[in-house]
Amino acid sequence: MTGLIDDLGADVPLTAPPRRVVSLVPALTEAVATTVPGVLAGATDYCTHPPDLGVPRVGGSKYPKVDAVLDLRPDLVLANSEENRPGDVARLREAGVPVWVMAAPGTVPQALGSLRALLTSAFGVPAPDWLAEAERRWARPRPVRARALVPVWRKPWIVLGRDTFGGDVLHRLGVATVYSAHAERYPRPKIGELRARFAEGAADLLVLPDEPYEFTADDGPEAFPGVPYVLVSGRYLTWYGPSLVDAHRELDAAITAAVR
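Request: output the structure for the sequence above.
Response:
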């Protein structure tokens, strides 16, 4: 298995398919658990899928307990360039642990292509059926039917900007995101600016996911009086992996009901 390179161009010195894997990325945890059952030896506190995943927890994605990861003696750690700190990745590598870092995908095809490379090269397994089905379902963007503002946090307000996976998910379902041309991937506009987007007609739909911030019917919509909104699963909007198969149907149904 010589010559393995992760998304960032770093060597991944595996000599055989890994059998003890620690995942620091919830979406990768689900993808690996579904495709290569039994290899996960540890995961973060936020790795909620599969729901019955019974492995030791090593803290959060942003602040994992590196010593706890090392104590599990992994032969591979999975990380993401946006979710995990370079210093933690460096420390694991310095300890002799191979780390595969997935680049933060800006589109659905990029995410699925990266997953295909990870599973087929690092794990040496055929591309799973769920991957092919997700590629099929998400292949063609739909015509624009709404223009959405998509907060992912409040206090301060943070919204989807340019080149985000969640933004491309919505784009492929016919929803343009208001800040898609912004210089930042996750802009932090003031609430007055966000409300003005609706008042001036630049936005006509508020999309509120339940993660990373847990927006609810009582926490989020009240900041935008009179604005049409839809509550969606953050997992369906931002996770890349097996959830993308159901995400297409579930998100499409929620958006269709909101824009009628």
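The mean pLDDT is 96.
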